[in-house]
Amino acid sequence: MTETAKTEPTRTVHFIEEIMEADVASGKWGAPGDRSVIRTRFPPEPNGYLHIGHAKAVCISFGLAERFGGTCNLRFDDTNPVKEEQRYADAIAEDIRWLGFRWPGAGEADAQAGILHASDYFPRMHEWAVELITKGKAYVDDQDAETIRAARGTPTVPGTPSPFRDRPVEESLDLFERMRRGEFGDGARVVRAKIDMASPNFNLRDPVMYRVLNTAHHRTGDAWHIYPMYDWAHGLEDSIEGITHSLCSLEFEDHRALYDWFIDAINEGRPGEWGEPIHHPQQIEFARLNPTSIVTSKRKLRQLVDEGKVSGWDDPRMPTLSGLRRRGYTPESIRSFCETVGVTKFNATHDITLLENALREDLNARAPRRMCVLDPLKVVITNWGEHGDEQRTEWMAATNNPENEQAGTREVPFARELFIERDDFMEEPPNKKWFRLKPGGEVRLRYGYWITCQEVIKDDTGEVVELRCTYDPQTRGGDSPPPDAEGKVRKVKGTVHWVSAGHAVEVEVREYDRLFTVERPDRAPKEAPDDWDWLTNLNADSLRVRTGARLEPNWPVSDVERSVGTGDFADGIARLQFERHGYYAVDGSAGDSRPIFNCAVTLRDSWSKK
RNA sequence: UGGGGAUUGGUGUAACGGUAGCACAGCGGAUUCUGGUUCCGUCAGUAGAGGUUCAAAUCCUCUAUCCCCAGCCA
């Protein structure tokens, strides 16, 4: 893979990185100056697919570890068996690998290698819970969920303690053991931390640590009847793995007090009869990604899939990583996008065009160029046989990638019958700025010849079905003809793409528009009725399938292009620039015999704006 | 009415008491065999009010606005 000449975009050092730098310098986690001590983790719950919002979190935790020469674990936070499935875990791991990140022990052969699971820590968490109960810092509560909620209080009125709050330690221990063995029904009892029912921070009003769930877990089977809550489990998982910096999103700021409380509670009296103190990571919060015109709510994405608004989680219009991948997005473009949005605690809005621009930038440098006529209009070169060689094919050299000279050229066939884009011809152009083909007008066929439209042929309905043109043999390759006797060079303003009708490959091209045309699809308008449905913002016209497109026959790409890094992407997905249109990716999931190309993003069009 | 966070051009993001910079978008121009790319120019900002200081986006006080929190979800 060749390097593009571009210099790396200047990367700004964000606040989390500064904290890490300071910790490295002070030797908080190891020898001062040893950057490799940085340990982060990405802890998804395997209950759905990763989307572009998750990509930011992935890039932060994995990216920071990469930058410091430390490590980032992939850990499935599988503490709630009723929502989790192995297939989600598999998809998540695949998406992270696709982005180009690796966790310790990740192997190329075994996709599962090195992946960690909260469920593997259940026994240790259980021991620590017993410890907290024994220390009088936790208790079993017999109240049901409704009662507990009612007693929790409000922002201004303190909660009231459970009547079971001060029950004997032995009784709690016994009940906890019976909970574990499955003697009680779902929700019958919980274990609660004994903190402060009057705390202004709700998370500290005796939070639940364990609930009874008589549900089989996708990894531990029916070994457990109790499952730990996030707040209890998460810090312990981080502690066990020796995480130095536990990075999460802003909504967990209020949970940090609890995160710290649990670890401190375990460490109380340590070193001592309970053993050595356990590791205490630092939780740091950052703002989520918040892109315009898409939804990232898992519930809403699921709704789109379930109601058939899209073809699946990997529909190319979906903001899931699997959808973006199928659409043609490169991992590099997504990582570049995450770099430009930065890392702060500010709830920013990220224009989705930034993501599109990141892809354009990457693909402009790397994607091989091809000519593809999406909506063919036949052109017959009437003077092609002027020397009696009407059936001949001429092969024209075309540049594979103007951004990368080493990508070389290819030979494109030119013959008597061609296709051009229907849009590139107008019988009656609206103004003088029409540089493309018109009756009596001349245009350059890129890398081909200059042609002049002599005759327009229509069918019974008046639709143009064919153009009869003449070519100028002196313009071979698309170059200007030699100067005339007076030294004047003839010029042509317009250049259009084309294919040879007899040589082109028929392909299917799928073009996508935004799934939602408003900036905030899930935000109800000010005067919306109570039953306002967010799906009213759905763009009914977001998919366009073109079945009759014609691609020049240089496909798949050449060895030369592959060898210099164009036409060869690390994820094995081929992407091309169809000149004057956009960037297109081969859809391998569609399972059709005819090649299918998804339009990842169009070229910028500074013309339509004017 | 409680607690926790946040606020710098249109949108993001730097500046860590010392010239408010960069990117994207916008606008104008140049180059171009892609209405692409590239290049040049340009518009535009410290939420508000006080205070400290030779000097404040930065420190202090008050105000405003926005986000999160009352799951046996994560």
Key attributes of the depicted protein:
610 residues; seven-stranded mixed β-sheet; single chain; 24% helix; RNA-binding; disordered N terminus; alpha/beta
Give structural notes.
With 610 residues, the protein is α/β, with parallel strands linked by helices. The chain is built from 13 helices and 25 strands. The protein has helices at residues 15-26, 52-68, 86-98, 122-134, 145-150, 169-181, 230-240, 256-267, 298-306, 321-327, 331-341, 352-366, 559-563; strands at residues 39-42, 71-76, 116-117, 138-141, 190-193, 208-212, 226-228, 245-249, 282-286, 369-370, 372-373, 376-381, 394-399, 409-414, 417-421, 442-445, 450-458, 464-472, 495-496, 498-500, 505-512, 543-551, 575-578, 582-586, 596-602. Strands 10-23-24-25-21-22-11 form a seven-stranded mixed sheet. Strand 23 and strand 24 (582-586) form a beta hairpin. Helix 2 crosses helix 11 (331-341), helix 7 (230-240) crosses helix 8 (256-267) and helix 11 packs across helix 12. The protein starts with 14 loop residues before the first helix and ends in an 8-residue tail after the last strand. The model is unreliable at 1-8 (pLDDT under 50). It binds one RNA strand of 74 nucleotides through helix 5, strand 6, helix 7, helix 12 and strand 19.
